């Protein structure tokens, strides 16, 4: 029987493969982060990934990928730009970022992903109206998980 609390990050008992490191660097850049450090002192492991601002063409703000609706679809999915627990309400105001029916602009923050004290904003990829919230508040989401749908203007 496992009595440990749920781990948010997999065990770091060996170094990841180069392909996994490259994938993590891509996720960091897409989330607007510049570095990640993993350490396991007991195993004597330390991994630091830094994303070059110039090399990756990133800025300090999260990247908002233009997402036009595909042919035959009427909504655009807003996906997790990182992994963490979903926060649909502003932590200081207890007001929802983007409830169903809300008008949002491209790049507006529609949710937060929280991991410990880290908070990563989730931007709207298009301007429009929120028509459906798919994910549950406080759910642990992985990178690319669908959070909500927007009907483009």
Walk me through this protein's architecture.
The chain contains two helices and ten strands; from the N terminus they run αββαββββββββ. With 153 residues, it is mainly β. The protein has two domains: 18-56, no CATH class; 76-152, OB fold (Dihydrolipoamide Acetyltransferase, E2P) (Beta Barrel). The strands form three sheets. Strands 3-10-8-5 form a four-stranded antiparallel sheet, with no helix packed on it. A four-stranded antiparallel sheet has the order 7-6-4-9, with no helix packed on it.
What are the key terms here?
153 residues; 4-stranded antiparallel sheet; 2 helices; OB fold (Dihydrolipoamide Acetyltransferase, E2P); 10 strands; 2 domains; mainly beta
């Amino acid at each position: 029987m496992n009595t440990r609390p749920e781990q948010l990050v997999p065990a770091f008992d060996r170094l990841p493969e180069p392909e996994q490191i490259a994938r993590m660097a891509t996720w960091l850049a897409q989330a607007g982060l510049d570095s990640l450090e993993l350490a396991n002192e007991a195993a004597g492991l330390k991994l630091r990934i830094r994303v070059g601002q110039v090399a990756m063409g990133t800025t300090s703000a999260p990247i908002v990928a233009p997402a036009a609706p595909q042919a035959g679809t009427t909504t655009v999915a807003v996906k997790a730009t990182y992994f963490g627990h979903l926060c649909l309400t502003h932590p200081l105001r207890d007001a929802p970022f983007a409830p169903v029916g809300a008008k949002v602009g491209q790049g507006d923050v529609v949710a937060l992903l929280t991991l410990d004290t880290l908070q990563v904003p989730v931007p709207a990829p298009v301007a429009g109206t929120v028509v459906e919230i798919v994910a549950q508040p406080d759910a642990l989401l992985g990178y690319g998980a669908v959070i909500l749908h927007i009907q483009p203007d």
